[in-house]
Amino acid sequence: MVDLEILPLFCVGPLRIGSDTRAVHDVLGACEHRADRIADGGCLTDFWLGGRFQVHYAGEARRVALIEVSLDPRVVPRLFGMPLFARKASHLMRQLASYASVPMDIREGGIQCICASLELALGRTGADDSYFSTVAVGGWGHFSGRAQTQGR
Predict the structure, then answer these.
(1) What is the pLDDT of residues 30-68, one digit of tens each?
(2) Strand residue runs (E) in the chain
(3) Which of 4, 62, 75, 107 could form a disulfide with 13 if both were Cys (CB 3.0 to 4.6 A apart)?
(4) What pLDDT score does 126 carry?
(5) Which residues pair with 2 in a beta bridge?
(6) What are phi and psi of 51, to 5 degrees?
(7) Cα 113 from chain centre
(8) Count of CB atoms within 10 A of residue 135's CB?
(9) How far apart, in whole angstroms, are the C-alpha atoms of residue 44 and residue 28?
């Protein structure tokens, strides 16, 4: 089992936001699958762990823009030391709000929780699921939209 400490806006474990594909592959090895949708206005995405670990790259330089981790027994994503998928969603949201004093925006009928100031999203498969099963960590402006409004 691998613990991946999340430092919002910076990294997920050893993977840094803004790294190039070579740096990611140096850490994780060759990806299992790659989806290249850049020509269609999308992004390049590399997949590991049967798709439960995804790295999305943006721009011509193909730099890490978003890292997504889904529930897998081999990986434990942590934020402020808390295992994100092992705590009830309601409890985790209260703890995050108290530790980081961050507002949470609940979207998509309770399926997604966005912490825009941390550029972080937590998701679950259904609004009545007790636990989150995905986490996405983006670079500056990914969830907040600040990159466009502040010229970054």
Answers:
(1) 999 999 987 666 789 999 999 999 999 998 889 999 999
(2) 2-7, 11-12, 15-16, 33-36, 44-48, 53-58, 63-70, 75-79, 82-83, 105-107, 112-115, 120-123, 134-138
(3) 4
(4) 87
(5) 75
(6) 95, 0
(7) 12
(8) 23
(9) 16
